[in-house]
Amino acid sequence: MSDGVPEFAVVGRVNMGKSAVIATLMEIDDNDVLRVSPTPGETTRAQAHKVVFGRKECVRFIDTPGFSRPVEAMRAIQRIHGEGTPGRDSLRRFVQEEGDDFRDEKSLLEPLLDGAGVMYVVDPGRPLRDDFLAEMEILRWTGRPRLALMNFREDGNAEFEEMWREKLGSAFNLVRTFDAHQAKYEQRLLLMKALLEIEEANRGRLEETIRLIEMEWDERRNEAAEVAREFLAEALELRVRVKIDDKDERMPTRRKQKEDELKVKYFERLKKLERKCFGKLLVIYRHHLLKVESGEEAFQDIDLESEEVWMKWGLSRGQLAMVGAAAGAAGGVAIDAATGFFSHGIFTAIGSVGGGAAAFFKGGMLPDLKVDMRDGVKFSTGETKELVMGPPGSANFPWILLDGVLVRYGRILERAHGRRDVEVLGAADEEGYTKNFPQERRKLLGKWFVDCAKGNRPVGKDVEVKILWALEEAMGEVGK
């Protein structure tokens, strides 16, 4: 503590989840940095982990070995002290004089004797035995600020919670619950704020740390919104092309073969854009074990031929009609795109009513028709003929893409860093978010979607900023 950085030693019995608590709290899912394992005794020495902002260390958490012989250690400390209640001097003599029989106890006591606060991790699913009471007594003798953390394990068993809570309440300044395998950002932030309640001497440093954590989380959401915005724009602007000669044009079977080749190429390109988008999001939120892919075939992209996707994600027919009507001529442009621009702009001239009606009926088509890419095939002008494909004609297509981003963004936020299983970020089956957007947000995004799909993405800074704010606001609502 000589450098003035608040320290908290995470202590407890072997295999209580001490390392997992630190990993989740500090977003470390790399075993090379912080080993988390169900094997008892993985942490064999005290290891410091620093919370740093702008090259300035704000808080330090120390992962310690677990108590291995607490009852015997308690008796040894009492022998050293003699009559009365032992204190820091007796604990220091214990650390200096006792041999290797109490190596783990000595290692976890050293940072506490140097001034660190206590985070005591227990499993409320285990019976409260004498050895746990001995641990509490030793920690009480340190005289340091003490936070007890009931870490609920994966099986969710908390049979002895009330008994634990009663005993912890008499020996610790504060008792809190935490699940190192499920805790989201809000729970992690609450745990940081709990440290304020036990460590008055470092209140200023801790308050500054919490403020920086909140600011950095907002910055990450802003960065994630930028990634989502670029993905949506690139997906809507995506076109694939193939040259076609007169023979292919005149023969339906050959033309269909060309169209099928285009469709495969289109979805391969779309899948690549998705993969890039989610790969960036995983970097932003510091995930190494939640992966976009563990092989080229592993990534589960949005299944645009699945009826379930079109039922759960995107807007309803009525909402599509309202977006089309609100956007006025923009709704008409969406229909021009959907018909491969064969309409020569006639729908644009119809305006608000036509746009709303067309969006309604287009949104109500069966899923296989929505992704029938032949609706988007057209000949390019000029001497060389080619087929051009993309994007799918459905007015719901961009909303499906956006829901795919938001749903999987939610899974990224839900994944606790204390877990050590490898998982591929696939398409989830929960409901989408766009149906619950406020009308003004749908109107803003709807117009932007149409412009991007037509190849006329607005270059004005104000429009792009408004889209970024809308996406950032939507991402802030995910997981709440």
Explain this structure to me?
The protein has 480 residues and is an alpha/beta fold. The protein folds into 2 domains: 7-198, Rossmann fold; 218-477, no CATH class. It contains 19 helices and 11 strands. The chain has helices spanning 18-26, 70-81, 88-97, 103-113, 130-141, 161-171, 185-198, 203-237, 246-250, 252-284, 307-312, 317-327, 329-338, 346-350, 352-363, 367-370, 397-414, 439-453, 461-477, and strands at residues 7-12, 47-53, 56-63, 117-122, 146-151, 174-178, 240-243, 290-291, 378-379, 386-389, 423-424. The chain has a 6-stranded mixed sheet, with helices on both faces. Strand 4, helix 5 (130-141) and strand 5 (146-151) form a beta-alpha-beta unit. The longest helix has 35 residues, at 203-237. 40% of the residues are buried.
Nutshell version of this structure?
This protein has 480 residues and is α/β, with parallel strands linked by helices.
